[in-house]
Amino acid sequence: MAVPGLRFDQALQAILIKDLRCEFRSRYATGTLVMFALTTLASVSMATAGTGLTPEFAAALLWVVLFFCAMAGLARVFVQEQEIGTLLGLRLYASGQAVFCGKSLFNLLLLLGLAVLVVPLFVVFFNLEIGNWLLFSLTLVLGCIGMAVVATIMAVMVMAAQSKQAIFTVITFPILLPQFLSGVQAVSQVLAGNEPDGLVFMAGYDIAVIAAGLLLFDYLWND
Amino acid sequence: MKVVLENISKAFGAKLLFEHINAELDTGRCLVVTGNNGSGKSTLLKIVAGLMKPSSGSIRFYSGNQANQQVLQGTVGMVSPEMAMYPALTGLENVLFWTKLRGLAITEAKASELCCYVGLSGNERCRVEHYSTGMKQRLKLAVLLALNPPVWLLDEPSANLDEHGKELIARLIDRALTAQAAVLLATNEAREVGYGSARIAL
User: Fold this and answer.
1) For a tag on chain A, would you pick the N or C end, based on fewer CB atoms within 10 A?
2) Three-state secondary-structure class, residue B27
């Protein structure tokens, strides 16, 4: 008989690989995220054709696209487990922290993949010039980490609710607002050719939400 | 591994499902839970698994001389109609996923052997979405065999299984008891009730 020690790293790896494999085969979240991003970018691009965008407006637009894509696709991480009936097994066989980290990493990879697709289109559609790609990418990565982690925590909270999607967006936005505003400010500064000054705050926000997730997730997961 | 249920009650709102359940589940023994539909058989198993809290009472897990109030992670394995496998993964991938999640390293050959043992020979590399209900049930049994836990919780294990499948359940329970596992079996099948050395009637 086997009484294994539940190894955190193995469980995390198993969840991440399983989610990536299932997503690769079903392409549910990817399809939602990509279609939403392309539709939004194309609509705004056509509506503002020929109009030069200010760095502030362009930055806000980029984060709005990323935020609403996250809201459209990331809430599914637990709802899907619930719908197909695998949630009970996951609760029985995995620790809450391994699930939190595995699902957060999966959400982060989805968001970063989306950013890699959206940013070049954004630059081409709106004819933008990005002086410092390194700082621009760093800002996006920090913002995506915050969004992925908060989305994972909120997704498990709304799992049992009736109107999951609506509640998810409503409760996620206020929590993400500080990161959202800092991201908009930092990207607008990079687009204006300046050094962004909110990166330390964004990194601190990420550390705070990761710590909160590690501390709280077991309670949310088991109750 | 011994599991002791002390004065367990469960109510959902004003509806009392069961009360004052006292029982011992010892190594190498099979405890059968019977009762009508809605009497709380599955709920009792979920309480033992730690997936649900009892309204009152407690469950103790004894390992050697040590007693624990909570289910020891890694000690309980469960087959239930409410637990599903991942439809986008193959049978083999499901076995490997659930065992890796538990911190066990089994080879693909071993996982394949277990799939064959439960009657999924030739289908272990097909996606679960293409499985029949009975094949999905057999896959759950393969996962349980791969996990090989000291405490087996079987909720209607022969549901959706044909006659060969029901014989498989008998062999599996026998195998578990021989290996000194403790088996808690919720069923209303007369044949399965006979496997138990004690019984809780809800």
Assistant:
1) C
2) coil
